[in-house]
Amino acid sequence: MTDKKPLEKIEGMIATLMQQMKIPGLSLTVVDKGKAIYTKGIGARSLKGNLPATPNTLYGIGSVTKSFTCIALLQLAEQGKLKIDDPVSKYINFKIGKEDKPILIKHLMSHSSGIPDLGIASVLIRRHSFPDTELFVPMSSADDWLMYANTAQNEIIDEPLKRFFYFNGGFALLGLVIEAVSGMKYTDYLEEFILKPLAMKRSTFLREKFEKEEDRMTAYATEKGKIKESIHPFDDLIYAAGGLLSSVNEMENYLQMFLNEGTFKGKQILTPESIKKMINPMIKVPQGVFGKTYYCFGLGRTEDFFGETLVTHGGSTAVSSAYLAFVLNKKMGVVVEGNVGATQGGIIATAILASLLGKNPFEDYPTLRLESKLNQLVGSYQSFKGINKAEIVKMGQQLYFKDPEQDCPAFPIIPYTDTKKNYKFWMPAGINKFPCEFIVDSKTGKISFIFERGVYHKIGPIKPKKKK
Fold this sequence. Notes:
Elements: H1 4-21, E1 25-32, E2 35-46, E3 51-52, E4 59-60, H2 65-78, H3 105-109, H4 120-129, H5 142-149, H6 168-182, H7 186-195, H8 207-212, E5 220-223, E6 226-229, H9 236-242, E7 245-246, H10 248-259, E8 263-264, E9 267-268, H11 272-278, E10 283-284, E11 293-295, E12 300-305, E13 308-316, E14 321-327, E15 332-338, H12 345-356, H13 361-364, H14 366-377, E16 379-382, E17 389-395, E18 398-402, E19 411-415, E20 424-429, E21 432-440, E22 447-451, E23 454-460
Helix pairs in contact: 1-12, 2-6, 2-7, 2-9, 6-9
């Protein structure tokens, strides 16, 4: 990034996001033209003792692990030990699906099996990280999981490749396939054939190895807007779906492997043909910020990210999170990791990539452009002489209109567009769209809100409620 000004602005955005979202610490690495140009830790890897986050801090990367699992399967396919077009039932005791159109390995790799979420991650994350919310579903072994999954025939909505359902349980099944085919434990296979060749020596799935490391995250949970120390969920059943812990320094090696068509420092992890398979669209997913988006094998793909193909995957364990994003054609990529479940890594990573592509992310990136617009509208409002009062509040990327003097729900206010010059919004009213509008005076900066018969003028920030 030759021009430092965009990066300085993004650093400011990161600091603001961390404060707003209550993110104790995060780490990131940025690669451009095949070289790391920026690697940094920001904030605290542990609030106790105020220990700083570093590029070597180990975080749980959640579902970014899914791409590792797909690499293992493609390696085994390259060796002729399985075919990704094989039925899953060929290797493990998996019984559900339509007889004439069975669920294949590639369907689980791409969330295109037609099976919806069956809750394996919810059950096990609660069990390990939020024990007060235990659900008491029998799920303590692979046999338990297969027994549970095999009762879900009636949950199948569509035949394979017809509907996208993000299915964590499918990757738990794929982990069992890897074990059945390789004759090794999933974690041993990953370490031997992926982590070691990539010099990811500190990356691990195992609690005992993680806890020996000094530079490791403390996991934090967000509950009702407050942060509290928690526990990372270690469990064999969720390793293949989201169990890896790594640092951005070691994840940079993983990123470089993709940018070099499957090779890292002369060691071939996958053939170029298998890398192409990994990022080939398998099923369309709900439209993203930049238009057409697909799920491939353990990775997502956006067709038009400022004219380039963007490959991404996020991950969250509810107490840690990560985001991987890269543009193969430009040999550029970003990895972001943090020690809460919502580190906003997707916004950070893609904003950086936009700046590397010569864009101003605060003007050209729809998400950040909308964020900037909404933030200026939040506040306390009142009508003529202060007779009627209102609050415009923001939760996530959504504004709400609220009467602070009435015990009634807040109403969502939805923008017609993300452009900064258009301040026309609407509220849902049954099947109708009720129009409303903000007026921003370009000279004075004063803001007014027009809603039905009333005009409300912004008078300042929302004042915190007094405790009774």
